[in-house]
Structures are given as structure tokens and as C-alpha cells.
Amino acid sequence: MWKKYRRAIETVQAFILTGLPFLTINGQSALRFEIPTLKLYVFGSVIWIREFYLILGIVLFCLLFIAFVTVIFGRIWCGWLCPQTVLLDLNQSIAKLFGRKQQKTIQTLLLIPLSALVSITMIWYFVPPAETLKTLFVSSTVTSFFLVLWVAVYLELAFLGRRFCTSICPYAMLQNALFDKDTLIIEYDVSRDDTCMKCDECVRVCPVGIDIKQGLNSSCIACTECIDACRVISEKRGMPPFPNFKGRIVRPKTFWLGSITAFAALVLFLLIWNRPPVDFLVIRDNTPLPSGLNRYSYTIYNNGGNEIALELSSPDNVTLIGEHSIRLPSFSAIHGSILVKPSGKLEHLRLGISGGGISIIRNTGFL
Ligand code: SF4
Ligand code: SF4
């Protein structure tokens, strides 16, 4: 029975999605986008909004990965991993425990706490769980965000549900465009149609309400419920189930598309984790100052998980007027400015930071 594998995968997925915000690496969530500072914490590293090329790289990699999975495994995401499917399956399984009569009512009622859990989990990807729980019903922003999400998720699950998969979901439409003749699909064996008992068990269990006997339907989410239902009937007669998986996983496209995806993942990984631990940007201010004085604005980014102490200095014959010593907490940025007074004639200035094994020098103009 496929159901037990599907339930196991769905359980793991639910634990990962709700548990990931609780995982901290270098003192920060493993995966979280911090809205006030516009930075993305990603498994012990931080991506700043100015590093747009990395965000673009992540998006492109996700698209490539989706294309690879879809071309080879069809709508496996929809039936086995999509959070909406997982939630509706979980809801249905719990409601079934209360018997057929109450099932519908229990399903609708159960969606209320489930939607709340989904909403708060979504917030945890923006605000750390401990802070969310502390500010929930205290901060009006967090509270209103939570309540709006709760209502929206509830309405979507209760009133759209599986219809979302068949008529609205843009990913579903994209998947249909990516299919080829070898993509893994669930197909009814037409060659054995004369031996089919026409009991319609496969139709009754289908969550999206299609009849697999009528041929491949673009609404099919590959959930395998029809295979399991048919197996119960057909095995009694010593036959394999009529609907079953059809397609070829091992083929040239799997290797070349898989290799491109793996290569893109490797490049992205190297780009993110091979960045310098500290970045230093300097620009000269254009504000008028007494002759012989220039002001420079600087930004220092600490990309690492440790606090660092840095000294601002210049190898040129100049006096720096302003704060020289800078302490930078983990994953933080600091903006500051410093006045520079040269001892003689100066056309270019070298401004640097050093400390904790870091030494960076930037060249800039002097007027
Ligand atoms: S469950 Fe199997 S035997 Fe029954 S109608 Fe569907 S395909 Fe035919
Ligand atoms: S046809 Fe079968 S695999 Fe497709 S959605 Fe219905 S039950 Fe799931």
C-alpha cells in the first residue's frame, strides 16, 4: 500500500516545516527572513538584500529543481509533499477516527486549530518563535498579521481545499507544461479494461474527484489513493491494481537535468559560504566641509556568527577624526562616518578595517 509511505513522508515534511524555525545555527534561526533589516538567515549564514544576485540565484535554483522533479516524477510534489495536501490528509485522517457520521463536522472544526498552527508557523519564518509567542496579543502588528493569516488559511482550506489544486494553483499548471512521455504518472491499464470490476472504488477515494478510468486527467495529483483502493479489490482476484504508476525514472534526461541541478546547487552553495566573513563599503560624502577635510561614510557587514572587534585606520599620512573602534555583533551591519584630515597633499585615500584576522583596505578619492 502506497498510503503508508505517503503518510510517513507527509509526517516528516510536517515536522520539518514546523520544526525548522526552532532550529538555531550560530544563534539565529536556520531559515528566516527578517523584515526590518531585510536579511535572510540561511543555515548559519546571512544574505543581505544588497546581495540580490544570491537571492536571484536561489530563485533560479528553485525553478530548476522544480523543473527536474516535475519532468521526472510528475506531480509527486502535489500528492506527497505540498503543505496543503499534507494538512488536508492529516485533517481527514484525524476526522475518520470519529466515525463516518461526524466526519464532515469534525473535519470543518479541526481546520480551526490547524489553520492557527499553519499561520503561526508561517510567522515563525519571519519572527523567531520565542519572540512571536512573547509578542502575540501584545504587539498589534504581530496579532493582526496572525489573525488575518488564520482567517485566510481557514477560508482557503475549508472552502477551496482540493479545488485549489485543480483550478488555481499556478504550480499545477506549470507542471502540466513540463510533462513528457516518460514522466511518472498514474494511469489506468486500458488493455485490461474488460476485466475491471467497475466497482468505482478508485473514483470514491479520489480526493480531487476524477475517474482515472477515463484516462489521464490534468487534475490528478498522483496521490496513489486509487491504486491502493483498487489493490484491495483486484488482489482478491489475483490481479494487480488497474491504475498504477507509468513512466521511466532512469533515462538520459534524468542524468543531464539532474547534473545541471546539482551543479547549480554546488555553485550556489560555494557562492553563499565562500563570501568573506566581513564586507566593508566606503563612499565620500559630498557635504561641504572646511578646506582640507573630507567625510567618508562606511558600512561594515558581519556575515559570520561571531562578534568581531575592528579598528578603522589608514596607511596614508592622515588623521582620522571620529570613532575608530567598532564592535560588530554576529550577522549585523553598522553604518558610520569619519572625518579625514591629511598632513600633506592627498588625491587618493586608503581606508581600512582590521582585527580578528580580518584586514580590508578600500581606495577612494580625496578632494
Ligand atoms: S477500483 Fe479498480 S476494479 Fe474498481 S473500478 Fe476502479 S479500476 Fe476498476
Ligand atoms: S486519480 Fe488516483 S492518483 Fe490521481 S488524484 Fe485521483 S486518486 Fe489520486
Short description:
The protein has 367 residues and is of the alpha+beta class. The protein has helices at residues 2-19, 52-73, 76-81, 83-96, 100-124, 129-135, 140-160, 162-168, 170-178, 201-205, 225-234, 252-273, and strands spanning 24-25, 28-29, 31-34, 39-42, 45-48, 185-188, 243-246, 278-284, 294-302, 308-313, 318-321, 325-328, 333-342, 348-355, 358-365.
In terms of DSSP E residues, the strand content is: 15-25%
Q: Give the overall shape.
A: elongated
Tell me the domain tally: 2
The structure class reads alpha+beta
Give the H and E element order.
HEEEEEHHHHHHHHEHHEHEEEEEEEE
Please summarize the sheet with the most strands. Answer: 4 strands, antiparallel
Tally the beta strands: 15
Bound small molecules, which ones? iron/sulfur cluster
Q: Span between N and C termini?
A: 77 Å
Rg, please?
A: 29 Å
What is the helical fraction, as a range of percent?
Answer: 40-55%
Parts with pLDDT < 50 across at least 5 consecutive residues:
none
Largest sheet, spatial ordering of strands:
8-9-13-11
The overall average pLDDT, rounded, is 91
> Helix tally?
12
Question: What do these coordinates show?
Answer:
With 367 residues, the chain is α+β, with helices and mostly antiparallel strands. It has two domains: 2-267, no CATH class; 278-365, Sandwich (Immunoglobulin-like), CATH 2.60.40.10. It has helices spanning 2-19, 52-73, 76-81, 83-96, 100-124, 129-135, 140-160, 162-168, 170-178, 201-205, 225-234, 252-273; strands at 24-25, 28-29, 31-34, 39-42, 45-48, 185-188, 243-246, 278-284, 294-302, 308-313, 318-321, 325-328, 333-342, 348-355, 358-365. Strand 4 (39-42) and strand 5 (45-48) form a beta hairpin. The relative contact order is 0.11. The model has no long low-confidence stretch (mean pLDDT 91). The structure holds iron/sulfur cluster (2 copies).
